[in-house]
Model the fold of this input.
Amino acid sequence: MELLQLMDSAVRLATPLLLAALAGLYSERSGIFDIGLEGKMLMGAFVAGAFSAVAGMPVADGGWGWTHGMAWFGLFMAIIVSVMLSLIHGFASITLRGNQLISGVAINFFAAGTTVLVGQEWFHSGGMTPTLKDNQRFEPITLPFADAVKDVPVLGPIYSDLISGHNIIVYIALAAVPVTWWILFRTRFGLRLRAVGENPAAVDTAGISVIKQRYAAVIIAGVLCGVAGAYLSLGTSAAGFVKDMSAGKGFIALAALIFAKWQPRGVLMAALLFGFLEAIGNKYQSVDLGLFVIPVQFMQALPYILTVVILAGFIGKAVPPAAGGEPYVKER
Amino acid sequence: MNKTLPKWADVLLIPLLNLFLALFISGLVVLFIGKDPIEAVKVMIQGAFGKYGIGYTLYYTTNFIFTGLAVAVAFHARLFNIGGEGQAGLGGVGVALILMSFNWPHWTIAILAASIAAFVFGAAWAAIPAYLQAKRGSHIVITTIMFNLIGSALINYLLVGPMKAPGMAPETPHFPPGASIPTLHDFFGLFGIAFDKNSPANISIFIALAALVFVYILIWKTRIGYEIRAFGHSEKAAVYAGISPLKITMIAMLISGGLAGLLAVNTVQGEAERLILDTVQGAGFVGIAVSLMGRNHPIGVLLAAFLFGILYQGGGELSFAMGIPREMIVVIQALVIMFTGSLENIVRIPVERLFARFGKGEA
Amino acid sequence: MTVETQNRGRSETAAPVAPAIELIGVSKSFGPVQANKDISMTVARGAIHGIVGENGAGKSTLMSILYGFYKADAGVIKINGIETEITDSHAAIAAGIGMVHQHFMLVEPFTVLENVIMGAEDGPLLRPSLAKARKVLTQLAKEYELEVDPDAIVGDLSVGFQQRVEILKALYREADILILDEPTGVLTPAEADHLFRILENLKAQGKTIVLITHKLREIMAVTDTVSVMRRGEMTATVKTADTSPSELADLMVGRHVLLEVDKQPANPGEVFLEVKNLSAIDHQGVEKLKNISFNLRAGEILGVAGVAGNGQSDLLEILGGISPATNGEVLVKGDPIDLSRKASAAHRRDRGIGHVPEDRHQRGLVMAFQTWENTPFGYHNRPQFRKPMGLANQKAMLDDAKAKIEKFDIRPTSPFLPASSYSGGNQQKIVIAREIDANPDILLVGQPTRGVDIGAIEFIHKQIIGLRDAGKAVLLVSVELDEILALSDRIIVMFDGTIQGERRPDETNEQELGMLMAGMNPEEAQ
Done:
């Protein structure tokens, strides 16, 4: 039972990582490093929280007094704004051939600053949005028969507790994995996307625009980061935006992506692994090993430590897309 | 062949134009949250240069010189050290450990010991990411960010656990009195110059100035600096010339981390006089903007650090006087990194075209 | 710029035969460099047309314009008699032009099929396109001797097969005009012969072929007509049957050059370098060198011939201290050198081994460094460049640079210019000056004249021979057989990581070396 709870919580915690890592997958497969996943997610979280809050606020308090669709509206706006940040990154790294790492870092700071700045201006509570309720959030969905099969041994609880009872974004994120695989390996778009990250000159000489292909990838990354962000503020127990709530998840997602060797299924596994670790860290504040006690701070730092271990390649060596990080310049 | 720009345009004109763009857009952000940007600039300048403000401005400038140099040294080896935050934090731990261990007979010995400890601890915190980059190819950008987060958890643990002073607050005991270093008030007092008594600025600013000279000599006058630059321009060429990538990566990052660690002499020994939570306050990240704006050159870093000192002190005033949150500074910092870093070509390309046309007319 | 499809294809019916390609007054500049000056050229349909010229004569630029990679500053392009504006590769493909680039434009982790369909897919889903391509490839394989496993990963194929994939890509796009840019540079003579048979087949089917090369032998062997380019201009177009290699060489260079190099017979002394059973496996597990043994004596030049990628680069890098060996022993004047991962190029220099690397842009020079910083590169820790406290003796570096600029005639003469602002020949002179002036016992030389203009080639060759005559040992790796034959006192031929044979230059010829380079044994083949 305890394990089931842990796994349930792992799925919730894995969701933003999964979405962000898939965003990184599209971007990096096309040859654009995106260290700004973190910032886009944070911005998405704020925009989703803020617009959902304003839309659902009574007219008397200066809101719009909606009763339905606030969460969806928040999600929509999060995607729009996240894509705008993506386009800045694309403009810097594709059109202007600037440094992709620096661009990503700048976007992260920009998001960290503006979310609090605008949040304070709009809600006057230290950058937080008001607590979101009901249709301002994505509520858990009970899948069909979840209650009916609850008492079936083993499979019943797995279905009703672990599989059922998440909000829509969790299911979207899980569905995004096979969809991404299909797009990447079964469609023309995917073929060109993978090619442009490996050898842009080959794509160019095949009569395909490298620039358009890369912009498309970067925009998809923006959409997915927007969804990931919206999940943080509208789909978790935070119930609203809190300053710096992405807390390094964008970077962990990048590590998960490397761990996954840029493969969609691997991304799912890696995200679940990190989610599981975080779930353990949350559940067991400090672990008493008899001889000594592992402090709570260590448990909190565990995902970060694991990220370093994974990047160190102690768990298999990963080969990134060959043209990653390099702007495409026609050779003379 | 394609060098169309004269040197002054390259090192002065383009950074200034980019800076102007960044500040212009910052102004638009201020407008967006319904405040008056002109008023904001006035408040900031008054705040930064006022009788009380200047001390804080110099205090921040000191921090940013250290972190800006840290990023710059790493950049010369084409390493992007985003770990200044963690390295400076750990520098604080080093300062606290050494200063609490002895009764210091004189501050001169204390500051020397604290500097060494700060440097060593900061360097140590950069060592693992550096080693993993050189040996395992682990992306140093991500590992240094992870080390910021791990470092923050570690300091948290130390301050509520082993190093905690009796009482509620997560902090170490006060350092012994001999460890206290002169403030700028004390220093200028020797020459009969009045300086705000309550400002945190202290003589560690001279260590920062010395670090500027040190980095200049290191990068442009020593053989190691020559190897660092060669490696930064082309790793393959460096290997051909018998320069060890592992050695250069380690040296550049250890120096980088050490420089970041020195920040703690200013904040922990100079200001707080005990180790508290979050002594770095984002200075590690500001270092990125400072280094980019300063073109990784000590003179540029000095100017950029001073500019950010003004922004930080003046930005603090903004929240008192106009209710603009401190995060405004983070936004400005982001825009400066963007325009002097990744979007640099937005100015460079048109300026190069202009010069090309102008140059042709002359020829 | 619509292309009328009825004009394309193997239409013998097109009565008034317009030339396949007609260029009128095409010009192109890159900044101050004019790569193509007012070029006019006609290529008849169904012909194999050669374009010859030295490195940097503008051949590749011209073809890149034709393929839409660059846009011409001026001029008109007519394809099959119709004026066509080729704005990008897409437009070139639509006009029926296909190109096989010198550096293949393939996605290595992809299969052959994926590479072939990319950009020519029939719809948003891959499956139908892949099925169709599989059929077409089988067809083309039969028609033109172009067999390739459609499911092979391109990165695993040999260069010869990769080139076939490139040709298949063009044919799959129904190209009528096929441009090949230096197609034999990486091929063995046997592979090259196979390629020429393919080209003949294509010609028989009515395709037009443009062959860019700097190898006159190939031009004479397969082309119908030939154009000569020199310094961005087209100097002549002649029927191949009416010309000779020496006439073409004159047209290419503009003055009579002797490929012979003036040198005295060698006077070999003691053994300076002894390589015993040297083997190397790279980090991907590929065996690069297989049990190599040879000697190099003082006062001789040992030429290493072979098609690129048969272990010569690895040999240079191991001897130069850049990469480790897995097995074997190397003795310098009788003492072993470190072949482990700990080896460093600095140690090699201390042992008297100088190294002119194959790739001067990536290895030999730091392009952003000024000349006074590049001239001591690799020797910067020598006593003459040291000052106490780890400082560099910058005055000594500068004086040294000035002396080398003078002695090796490096132009421009300022020591304060970055390496990127020199011509290829002068960049190479900086490297040669540094390595020869350090007075090594053994000099490793890789592709000394790649991308170097004729004048500098002569100078560099003289320097190498001068070093030999001073009693030093030279190991010369080059893919240019002419260069190997002209400079070497002995020649070893490498194939697939082994030494396939050893010959003396006066007792062999290009044909025999060519067979060795292809992994064949001439005696057995007889």
In short: Confidence is low (pLDDT under 50) at residues 1-15 of chain C. The domain at 46-68+97-253 of chain C is CATH 3.40.50.300 (Rossmann fold).
